[in-house]
Design brief:
Type cbb3 cytochrome oxidase biogenesis protein CcoH, FixH_proteobacterial, Immunoglobulin-like, alpha+beta, elongated
């Protein structure tokens, strides 16, 4: 029985296919990572780790309030915050920042538009933003962060 000889062409194909698979996986993973990165990092991870338990306690306190809110873009370019469980007299504020790339920030104040909705005083430029929402009423504070497209 005659066996085929393993030649340089065979070795080239093995290397070409092997490295091709590695490169395809790397490019796919890099693209997925770039699309999903929100741009949020901590300046000092050690300090952040020391504050972690305090952050958990604040989150539990916030959850006990029973408030919720969602942000959307209104037809007039202003942001609309739809709330549930937020008492009368609450103050709504937002800090906006671009997720990656452009270093653009904005601060917004809101006025109550209905029993549940607040509308920003200023218009917001189009594009992607990260909205850090803060609602306060007396000593109670509720906060969230969500993307806005």
């Amino acid at each position: 029985m005659m066996r085929k000889q393993f030649t340089g062409k065979h070795m080239f194909l093995v290397l070409f296919i092997g490295f091709g698979i590695v490169m395809a996986v790397n490019f796919t993973m890099a693209a997925l990572a770039a699309r999903s990165f929100s741009g949020t990092v901590v300046e000092n991870s050690y300090v952040a780790s020391q504050d972690y338990n305090d952050w958990l306690a604040e989150a539990e306190k916030q959850k006990a309030l029973g408030w919720s809110a969602s942000v959307s873009r209104g037809g007039n370019g202003r942001l609309v915050v739809a709330t549930q469980g937020v008492p009368d007299g609450a103050i709504v504020e937002a800090e906006l920042r671009r997720p990656v790339g452009e270093h653009e920030n904005a601060s917004l104040a809101f006025e109550r538009a209905s029993d549940t909705d607040f509308v920003s005083n200023d218009e917001v430029a189009g594009g992607r933003w990260i909205v850090r929402l803060k609602i306060t009423h007396g000593d109670d504070t509720w906060a969230s962060e969500e993307p806005l497209a």
